[in-house]
What does this fold into?
Amino acid sequence: MSKILVTGGAGYIGSHTTHLLLRRGYDVTVVDDLSRGYRHNVAPERLRVLALADTNGLRRLLEAERPEAVVHFAAYIAVGESIGEPELYFSNNVGGSLSLLAAMSQAGVGRLVFSSTAALYGMPARTPITEDMPIQPVSPYGESKAMVEKILGWLGQCRGLRSVALRYFNACGAEPGSGLGEEHDPETHLIPLLLRAVRTGRPITLFGGDYATPDGTCIRDYIHVSDLAEAHILAVEYLAGGGASNAFNAGTGAGHSVFEVLRAVEEVTGGKAPFIMGPRRAGDAAVLVADSGRLQTTLGWKPRYTELREIVRTAWEFERRRPLR
It folds into this structure.
């Protein structure tokens, strides 16, 4: 049974990937400091509460577990927060990754799957976005991920590290029957915010209704979290099979506007999602849609969830069982 170490495995995407790895027969150890993850997302015997900054603690754990690969999720993810607290984002996302990579090098672990982001493309000149387009982030969050990708490239040359960076678009939904879902605090993602608005009757703010899109709202590529988890497992297997370092866009290739998502939420829930229109947010591109052809061709990945209402339905199944706050 192959061993995998998952950092940030008590968070949203990390817990889903851990769940799927276990179902596939992998032996998984989760490292999480629980600053943004949740203890209830991980079986107690698999969880090691450990900060990424603890290089020696990570090295000892890696030497004891001898994992085949590390899947690295542990990062802060809110664009707005990163603009207000850039030091926090560079310290955690870049500094924490450097600590992990140093521990891996010391322990002789040479394969990494990295949770990256489409935010490193900034305001792209065209869509769909391909991996060879310019890296030009417009937030400290996006910059922190771009910096780690650059570091991975150098460690590939200097240390022989082989890595896969998965550049996520808009992760959403929940794995049915898993008890897992989005629990960000504060929540910043559109679908859970709309579902909460349906439940509470309290309006949410939608940012910008004057974009050059058919209905004036931003268009994004929504990828189901289970499809994203599947991409991580394929990346682990690709590296285990001798695959060279690479970066892949992880999205469906289909774009949906904010108003289209709102209508899907109302259709699935049978309720109204009250909202008010706010001004545009700095750094929001009109359209962000992935070209995931490289991921599909190289790793054989294909999204199972391609219908927006089905994605929303899985999120609603999780959300409606949560206590309201």
The mean pLDDT is 97. The domain at 3-172+222-250 is CATH 3.40.50.720 (Rossmann fold). The chain has two domains: 3-172+222-250, 190-220+253-319.
